[in-house]
Structures are given as structure tokens and as C-alpha cells.
Amino acid sequence: MTRVVILAEKPSQAKAYAEAFTIQEKTKTYIVLKPDDIFPNGATITWGVGHLVELKEPHDYKPEWKRWKLDQLPIVPDRFLEKVSKGKWEQFKEVKRLFQQADVLVNAADVDREGSNIFYSILRLTGVKGKPVRRLWINSLEKDEVRKGFKNLQNNEKDLRMFDEAKARQISDWMVGINASRLFTLHLQKKGFGSYLTIGRVQSPTVYLIYQRHKEIENFVSEPFYQIEGLFQSETGSYKGLAEVKEKDKGKVQALMDKHGLKEKEDHSGMVQRVDKKTKHQKSPKLHSLSTLQSVANRRWKYTPSQVLKTMQKLYEKKLVSYPRTDCNYITESEFSYVVNNLKSYQDTLNVSFTPISLKPRKRYVDSNKVQEHYAIIPTKSIPTEKKLNGLSREERNIYTEVLATTLAMFHSDYVYEETTIFTHVHDLPFKSTGRREVHQGWKELFPKPSKAKQDKDALLPNVQKGEEVGARLHIKESMTQPPKPYTEGQLINMMKTCGKLMDDEEDVEILKEVEGLGTEATRSSIIETIKAQKYIEVKKNNVYVTAKGITLCEAIEGTLLSSPSMTAKWESYLKKIGSGEGSKQTFIKQTSQFIEKLIQETPDSIQQVQIRNTGEKKKWNQPIAKCPACQTGSIMDRYKFYACSEYKNGCKVSFPKRLAGKSLSANMIKTLCEKKRTKVLKGFKGKKTFSTALTLDEDFKIKFDFKKKAEEKS
Fold this sequence. Notes:
CATH class of the largest domain: Mainly Alpha
CATH architecture of the largest domain: Orthogonal Bundle
Family: Belongs to the type IA topoisomerase family.
Shape: globular
EC number: 5.6.2.1
CATH superfamily of the largest domain: Topoisomerase I, domain 2
Strand order of the largest sheet: 2-3-4-1-7-8-9
Enzyme class: isomerase
GO biological process, one term: DNA recombination
Distance between the termini: 55 Å
Helix content: 25-40%
Domain Topo IA-type catalytic: 159-600
């Protein structure tokens, strides 16, 4: 009898897999499947809770590495080890027990390098060795796709290479984060900086991109410029036009008016010299990758990139859309085939009706050569009932409709418009007017109508004829040059993806193009959320601004590779080589170590030019929060990743976590616990479900949940 154990990344994923089979038994930590033609002896599905396993912290290797001191840098362990993530020990024990009993293991975590990392990191920590491992590789959680995937499990050769790639990335990011954050923070604190910096390989150059735009806006000097504008009156209506002159010197524009015998605000006679009409066709947009969907949703509904990814994940788990973390805009003929078969149902769901112009695949959308791990985001074969559609949140409905409309658009006709240019001469001075007229809506009828401002911009011109005489009134129009606008969150996603355009070095441009910029499709939104949480940027009315703390970071890292997208591009390029078997994890980690050594040598000099600003943070991070409830001598201090007593050198071991059951514990909560031994009922703790509870301090000065107080408050 072959015992098969399947590891899903999270409970919701495990549930979706189980729904494709018949369930025999369900527990808190695993699901047993009944035997069938795919698993003749049945199978057991268990799961991580995201990352069950994480890299050890510096102090797990050496207690002295807990303190932030320059003379302890660089912090580089001889071997990088893992530990069970806090609060996840029970699940890990069950996974370990099931792995030990298994004959065959199946990695069914997300189909990307982090999914490989999650599975093999857990497997390594369980100590289970020598068992065959298979890989589930699917793009949809629909029943048919899940069963097909389990029927055709892949070997783990590619999976192991992706694990090496992911582990190299994780270890190197750990080394840069731990060493660079301490290095820059401690040097800046010598100059009076009252906070701390967290520095990362991808997050720091991202902040720097926003800082560069801030500098462009700040240094921009607005200047006036002058043009001649004409308002023309024809028999069929009025229209505006501009002479082809644009000068900073108003006198030059006035001289041109004088040369042609023209005066402002006087009636003149004009002549239509030429009317050009061009019919233009616009093809429907390419299918969505995650980043194009994030950009559209931010522009249309002001959704943050993180909001879009979370919403897509929910729709994926509801089996309505394909795998969300894709960087591809193409599908294969296999997906195209099922989309064609469901065309009528998709139209009904979107409440539209049109005759497809063709049911044959076109290279603009269908190209197997351009599909690697994942294809573009499209609807699945599962057609939602009216009840299921009505049960979706507004965000889910908007995003699902956008995916559906974009998929249907590839079968629709082109959007056709007529572009008109009128050349009007007044005393031999030519004026140009442009506008457009919609001829055929085509695929655009599937999407929300553009704003009135956009429609006004594409103004309709009256129907005038060559040789027609028109009335003309002219004036010298004064305008001011405008600074660049701040990025929106949607534009920031695009900027991270295409930042190669900003690089001077051609080789760097090519590398950035190949690896698609900063971060990956799956991580960009979380990077933006991280730099928001670190207070390096703030978002106001969907515009992204760098803060005083962000400016300090950028001035500190200016001129180093930490500010440059080219470093992360070269890293990603080499990581891809590890994933394809052409590079070595050891070489990559060694190079990272050399980079850190160089940074330690160069930073003391480079930090001199940094101006220390008030970051606006209410408290210095190392100020006392409350008197220590244990020793009564020391004070509880913020130690960056946890709170602890200042008398720890003299033996006081009291410390409190920064996060407990998925909730951040603020300095005020810790102060209340130290002074009153209990808090009020707090919301937002996470277990299997979100829950509320009060916190208390027990006699050993450990934080405990107090559900009794919650019950008292209710009664």
C-alpha cells in the first residue's frame, strides 16, 4: 500500500484540492481522501500556514548578535539554519508526523519559486530523507484541472533547482537586510538620527525611484511660454486651433502676429486650406498579467496593487479565474479552446451579446512559445451562477468583470475612429486643429465608458470643407511648463517593471528588460506595502510621496548599489541561472558576502553628506516605553523586532513580541500591560478565524489571552 502525503501551501488551497476528490476524514491539520482511480490507496492532504519555517534570527546563532553594534558586523553565519515560525509549532509537528509515515510526498504549494522554498524548507527541517517527491503544476483550482494535475504529477528536478534559486534569494536578502540595516542605522544615529532604517535589496531601490521623482518635482522651475490660439467659426460650428509657434519670449510671438498683420481680439477672416481624415483601428488590449491588471484597477477604481492581488487570490480560490501571480499576457491553444467553448456563457455572465469576428487563435493573444510556468489571467471553465455573482464583494465583481471583458475582447472587432486634422490659414499664418470621431465602438463596448474629461479631450470637429471661409479671433495664449506628476500606485507597479528605461548602462538595461525590473510579479505589491509600513512613502489621493524618513534613507544609500535597480537586476539574472541549473547557490551567497564587506568599508565616508531630518515619528525608537514590571529598575525599550528590558546585561530577561497571533502590538499596548497587567479587549487576532481578546501579563511576565474579560464585557 502506497501512502501519499500532499502538502498545500495554506488551508484554503488544501480545501480546493480536496473538493476535487471524495473526502473520507477532515481534521484541524489534515484531510484524508478516499481511494479512487488517481489515488488507489487514497491520500492525505496537509498544509503549511504560509511559511511554517523561516531562517533563524542573528541571536539564534550567537546571543551577542542580538545587540546592534558596528564591531559585530558583518553578521554571516557559517551555515544558514531554519526554525519553525512562531506560533506554528503544532501544525509543523503534524506535518512532520505525516511526512515520516508517507511513502510518496507531493509538493502542491504555489507553482513558483517560493512554493518550492516553502515545501523543501519544511521537508528539510522535518529531517525526513530519501522519499520520492512529485510536483503538482497547475494554473487553476477547478475540479477538472486539479484532477488532471494530480494525474500528471511532474518529477521534482525543476522543483529542486527552483528551491536552490529561492533559498539563494532568501539567504542573500537576509544578509543584506540584517547587515545594511544595522550599518546605516548605527552610523546615522552617531549623527543624531532618532529612528532606524530597514534596508532591502528590492525595497531600497524602489524608494529611491520615488525619491528621484520627488527631486525632479522639487527642482522643477516652472516657466511661461506663449502660443497663438485661434477660435474659428464655420457654418457648421466652432473649433479651436494653434499656430505652430511656442516661445518663452512673448515679444517673438507678438512680432509674428505683427508680421502677418494680425491683432488680438479683432475679427479676422480665415480660410480652410486642408482637411485630412484618417481612419484608425485600435486592437483589443492584450490579456492581463497581474501587473497590467493592477495598473488598470488602480487607474479605474483606485485599488492598491496589494488589494488587487488579495482580491484575485479570493477569485482564484473561488475557482473563477486562473493563477493570479503571472507575468504572462498569452495563453496556449489549450486554454483558447475552452474559452471558445464557453464564449456564449461568458457573454451571458457579462450581459453582452456580439458575434465573434473569428474563432481562430491569433498570435497577439495565443502563443505557446511565450507561455512558461503560467499563462495570462483568464476566467476558468466554471461559470458563476447568478447567486455566486451576487455573493461577490464589489472589488471581486469589478476585478472579475475586468478579466472577463478583456478575455472576450480578443474575439471582438477593432475600435475604429476617424482622426481629423484641419489646417486653417489666417493672413497666411497656418493654424492646426485635431479631433476624432468614433466610427465603431467594437471591443470598447465591453468596458466602462471613459470619463467626460477624456471625451472632451478628443473633441469632435465640425464638418468643414477645403476652401471654406471661416471667422477668426486670435489671442496670445500664456501657459506655464508643468513639473512631472508624482507616481500613482498603479504607475509605480509599471515603473518597478520597466525601470530599465532609466539606466544609462546598456547591459543593465538589457538585464532589467530580461528580468522585468524590480521585484517579481508576485512580490511588487508586498514591496510597496512594506515601504508604506516602514514610513518611507505615503499615499495621498492615490499619489505616492516620499517622506522625510524616506529622503534620509535615499541620501544615505545614494551612490551605492542599494539605490540602483541594476544591482537587483543582476541578482535576479543570476538567480534565474540557478533556477535553470547554470548558476550556483554557493557562488551567489559568496558574492553577497563580498558586497556586504565592501559596504561596511565604504559607508562611514559616504554617510557624511547625509542631512539628519525630523522624520515626524513621535518617539525615538530607543526611548523608554514603561518601567520593567519584573526588575523595577530597567525600562522596557523598543528593540526593533521586539520589546525588552534595558537591564538585560544585568540578568533581566523580560521581553515581549512585536506581533502576536497576526496582530501588531503597539508601544501603548505594552505600556498598558506593564502598568496595569491587562489591556481592554482588542480586535484583529488571527487563528483559524479572526478573533478578539484582552491580553494579560502572568506571574512569569508572559503575555496571555484573556477570553474571560471578553465574555464579561459582552454580559
